[in-house]
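FAQ: What does the model actually see?

It sees only this:
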Amino acid sequence: DAGAGALKAYVTESVNAFLAPHREKRAAYEQDLDYVKDVLREGNRRANEIAKATLDEVREAMGMVY
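And it is asked to produce this:
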């Protein structure tokens, strides 16, 4: 009954309440960039390991292992 302005305020509050814990966690990570870099480095290492294994399988399947 209050109109579009009230709806907009309600949605804004709801979205901000939903995102609050995520923003807090992000702020904590901003204070520990070494941890973030370690996580990214480990993820990159694991991705490269998986990619290498996949390429090895493909080369084997295609008879390209010399």
